[in-house]
Specification:
Layout lengths: L10 E8 L4 E8 L5 E9 L7 H4 L4 H21 L2 E6 L1 H5 L3 H12 L3 E3 L2 H13 L7 E7 L4 E7 L2 E8 L3 H8 L7 H18 L10 E4 L2 H10 L6 E3 H13 L2 H7 L8 H14 L4 E4 L4 H16 L4 H12 L4 H17 L1 H4 L5 H11 L11 H11 L7 H12 L18 H19 L8 E9 L2 E8 L4 H7 L3 H8 L2 E7 L1
Parallel strand pairs: 1-4, 4-5, 6-9, 9-11, 13-14
Antiparallel strand pairs: 1-2, 2-3, 6-7, 7-8, 10-11, 12-13
Helix pairs in contact: 2-4, 5-12, 6-11, 7-11, 8-9, 8-11, 9-11, 13-16, 14-16, 14-19, 16-18, 16-19, 17-18, 18-19, 19-20, 19-21
Length: about 500
């Protein structure tokens, strides 16, 4: 296997996708111009969702297969020197024993397995399918997984609306006991069930949607390849409906002759789901694309690196969200500027990873958006709003970290034992605590909301941090307010904070 490319300038990245039907690995070289070159791919039909939708848990046997596969993937990634992001979707989302499995994967494979929400899964699929598309292009993406179906309306490469339905080919097959032929009465029930779920989950009659959709999953690829006319790259709704009828009449042995044996037992259910989505959204044709979640993870890793080296897309997205909620933009920008100045100049003191910088900036920009709901409790409302908005470039976990940093910009101190810290690892709790402490100082230094502070100069000697505030006018209110944060600063960083002013 090739090792890290020595002279190309390309960083090696790896995406691991733990789905309901299979586990997949893709390793690629990322070059400075943003292009990706695939180095290695694997797919294993582990079936993490086997029996899950009936029992609610992943069995020991299935968990053993999953961990064994991920151990092998981790070894391959190590040999390539790859930076890895491993994500798990519907099966792990719903498994009652998911935390136990995540811990076991960390312990035995050395991988941090991130269980993403349906919306984050849809965002990554959209990014994988549409990266680089023109800004004015409208697209509709459909991905039918084993446990869920994601539908994304996008403009350019950015999702406008995301829907995640708890209906996938494995779940649907288990729900209706589909193995061999499907009797007409049962097929009618399946179609009715899928239609009702679509009506409950996705608004009817959405204007402006394309009449042609892109299908990014292996299930859709198999259905389109079977249904389409010779020499045509897409399948029409009529062809998909005809395929549903034909698959229902086939037994498992016949389907295995037509399809990959690893997919033959679930393809009928997948076809019913695809037909239902197309009918509900009035889609006339669907084209299968060989891109999806894994490619989205890789592109996302590239984008995150750009953000850490000066790309402004995340901060611009945060400002756009702030404007939507009518935030005080001048104050938000000033607090973000001061917070980043503290982060950069006090790096030897806080010892935070570079990845925490954009989290702090985003939290600073959005710390006051809760004013749109209630002034007195705006820090709590900010937590809720940030936790539920789409922030391109942040995973669900990172968005929760940002929301928690913003939550602690006032009132309650960011104690390690606070209930909001419970979902985080020990390292993540320390990141939240340190970033929140820096944010509180930065917020205090614009207490008047008039941006009097022009520059911060810091120096660290012994157990004391000296902070000189250079301003264009009196900063009495700011100095008074920042004194309230001195005790927390000492507690978090183990240093006294001495603040002086110079005009």
């Amino acid at each position: 296997m090739p090792q890290r490319l020595p002279d190309s300038g390309g960083e090696v990245l790896a995406a691991i996708d733990v789905g309901t039907n299979a586990v997949r690995l893709e390793i690629a070289a990322a070059f400075p111009d943003g292009t990706l070159e695939t180095l290695h791919t694997e797919r294993d039909p582990v079936r993490p969702g086997e029996g899950l939708f009936k029992t609610g848990v992943i069995s020991k046997e299935v968990a053993g297969r999953l961990v064994s596969t991920l151990r092998r993937y981790a070894s391959v990634c190590k040999r390539h020197g790859a930076k890895v992001r491993a994500v798990a979707t519907s099966a792990l989302r719903e498994a009652k024993n998911r935390d136990e499995i995540v811990r076991r994967v960390k312990r035995e494979a050395g991988l941090t397995l991130e269980v993403v929400s349906g919306r984050e899964e849809a965002r990554l699929i959209c990014l994988g399918v549409l990266a680089g598309k023109p800004e004015q292009l409208r697209s509709l993406c459909i991905d039918i997984g084993g446990g869920s179906t994601e539908v994304i309306s996008a403009q350019g490469e950015l999702p406008k609306e995301l829907w995640s339905l708890d209906l996938g080919s494995v779940r649907f097959s288990e729900l209706f006991g589909v193995k061999d032929e499907v009797p007409r009465r049962q097929l009618t029930l399946m179609r009715s069930f899928a239609r009702e779920l679509m009506e409950e989950s996705i608004p009817y009659g959405i204007s402006g949607l394309p009449r042609s959709a892109l299908g990014s999953s292996g299930t859709i690829g198999a259905i389109v390849a079977y249904a389409r006319s010779e020499g045509v790259g897409h399948a029409s709704l009529l062809e998909v409906s005809r395929t549903v009828e034909e698959l229902a009449d086939m037994n498992l042995e016949k389907r295995r002759k037509r399809f990959d044996p690893r997919r033959a037992d679930i393809v009928t259910a997948g076809a019913v789901i695809l037909e239902s989505v197309m009918k509900h959204l009035k889609v006339q044709t669907v084209t299968a694309v060989d891109r999806g979640l894994r490619e989205g993870v890789l592109v996302d890793l590239v984008r995150r690196k750009k953000q850490q080296t000066g790309d402004r897309s995340l901060s611009e997205a945060a400002i756009g969200i702030g404007r939507r909620f009518g935030f005080g933009e001048a104050h938000a920008r000033q607090v973000a500027k001061l917070a980043l100045s503290l982060f950069d100049s006090l790096a030897p003191v806080h010892k935070l990873p570079a990845a925490a910088r954009p989290w702090l900036e985003t939290a600073a920009l959005l710390h006051d958006i809760g004013h749109a709901v209630n002034y007195q409790r705006h820090h709590k409302h900010a937590f809720y709003l940030i936790s539920n908005v789409d922030l391109p470039g942040l995973s669900d976990r990172e968005r929760l970290i940002v929301a928690t940093i913003a939550r602690f910009h006032r009132r309650s101190a960011p104690d390690l034992t606070h209930e909001l810290m419970a979902p985080f690892t020990t390292i993540e709790r320390r990141v939240v605590r340190k970033c929140a402490a820096l944010l509180r100082v930065a917020d205090s230094l614009d207490r008047s909301h008039h941006q009097p502070v022009q520059k911060l100069v810091t120096a660290s000697r012994g157990r004391t941090v000296w902070l000189k505030v250079k301003s264009r006018q009196a900063v009495d209110l700011e100095l008074w307010d920042v004194e309230h944060e001195v005790a927390l600063f000492r507690e978090v960083f183990g240093r006294a904070l001495v603040v002086t002013a110079e005009r």
